[in-house]
Amino acid sequence: MRVLLGVLTVGILLFVGGPGYVRAADDTLVTVSSSYDFDTTLERLTAAIAKRGLKQFAVIDHASGAEDVGVDLRPTTLVVFGHPKVGAPVMAQAQTTGLDLPLKILVTQGDDGAVSLIYRQPRALVAGHGLDPVPPQITAMTKGLEAITSEASAE
User: Where is each DUF302 domain found (predicted)?
Assistant: First the structure.
């Protein structure tokens, strides 16, 4: 009887709040609200990237791709960019960072028309890829993302 009660207790705990059933919010995502409409925000973002001499590797229009398969998706575009001078030393320390680099900023438009720029904090690379010691480029990436999104979103 004690064994059965123990098994039931563990089962209930796992069902109510155990691993695999409750997903914590991702605290490495940064969302910046834009003062501009979607197209203007995207234009300002690509201009802010170019102004800093960074290479824009890709612009992926997810809404267009969704439309091609009959799915209605609000404006959602991913901009992939970076500079080998910053990213390459990080990749040399841990090649798996190539999964997350170059940097990316997602521009989205909500149901209410509000536009946001979303990016993952570079500190996520540290734990996610076992970077030890923490490369100084992480600070440069963080400051760059903050400056770029601020310039793209603020009046």
Answer: 60-122
Query: In degrees rounded to 5, what are phi and psi of residue 79?
Result: -110, 125
The pLDDT of residue 26: 81
Give kind and range of the element (H or E) at residue 117.
strand 115-120
Query: Considering only CA atoms, which of 138, 155, 153 is closest in space to residue 33?
Result: 153
Nearest Cα residue to 80 out of 52, 101, 97, 95 = 101
Q: What is the DSSP letter of 101?
A: -
Look up residue 113 and give its DSSP letter. S
Task: State the pLDDT at residue 53.
Answer: 97
- pTM greater than 0.90: no
CB 114 within 8 A of CB 41: no
Show the DSSP H helices in the chain as ranges: 2-17, 38-51, 62-68, 84-93, 123-129, 137-153
Residues 6+ apart with CB under 8 A from 88: none
Mean pLDDT, consecutive 10-residue stretches, the chain (155 aa), reads 43 40 70 98 99 98 97 98 97 96 98 98 93 93 98 94
> Which pair of tokens denotes residue 51?
């102004």
What class is the 29-149 domain?
A: alpha beta
